[in-house]
Amino acid sequence: MSIDDLAALVRTIPDFPKPGIEFRDITTLLADPAGFSELIRRLADIARPLDADLVAGIEARGFILGAALAQALGLGFVPIRKAGKLPGKKVGIDYVLEYGTDRLEMHEGQVKQGARVLLVDDLIATGGTALAAAQLLREQAATVLLALFAIDLPDLGGRSALEADGIATAALLEFAGN
Questions:
Q1: CA 7 to CA 171: how far, in whole Å?
Q2: pLDDT in tens, 42-70
Q3: Residues annotated as catalytic (active site), given as ranges
Q4: What is the DSSP secondary-structure string of 48-102?
Q5: Residue 23: inside a domain, yes or no?
Q6: pLDDT given for residue 4 in this prediction
Q7: Number of structural domains, the chain?
Q8: What are the CA-CA distances from residue 139 to residues 93, 105, 110, 147 (Å)?
Q9: How far apart are CA 160 and CA 10, in angstroms?
Q10: For residue 111, what are the domain limits?
Q11: Of 16, 40, 78, 152, whose CA is between 20 and 30 Å from 66?
């Protein structure tokens, strides 16, 4: 299956969540058994040479890709969640969005000091959430080896923002626009 075949499995929903936005919906790709398998295989091919210790996935679709990738690589998986979703002791980080603020959290002690981590999400747009997740991991004394995405929206500058912060970034698919 080619990159173009994978891209064709991503549905575009116009004017969601607001007018003028073209939402790239990866759930149609995930529902296709051959497409999902090929996506994880290709992500694993990118990640395998990095010799990571863990995969961290950003809520919510980053959980799907990250867990599947962790399994393919024989690694553990750590969820990075929105505020208030985790029981027990947690660490977190607040970050600014275009429309306000948000918070990401993970269980305290789940990422050991010095851990080499792959950060995974389905899509990189402006990069705000991925930057916050990477900072949260860094605050736990982890090294973010790579921020890995299925989709990049390069016109929104997220990849550039991550790379400007010293975070290596890769994505399989690119879609123009917003």
A1: 12
A2: 999 999 999 999 999 999 999 999 999 99
A3: 61, 98
A4: GGG--SEEEEETTHHHHHHHHHHHHHT-EEEEEEETT---SSEEEEEEEETTEEE
A5: no
A6: 97
A7: 1
A8: 9, 12, 13, 16
A9: 23
A10: 50-173
A11: 16
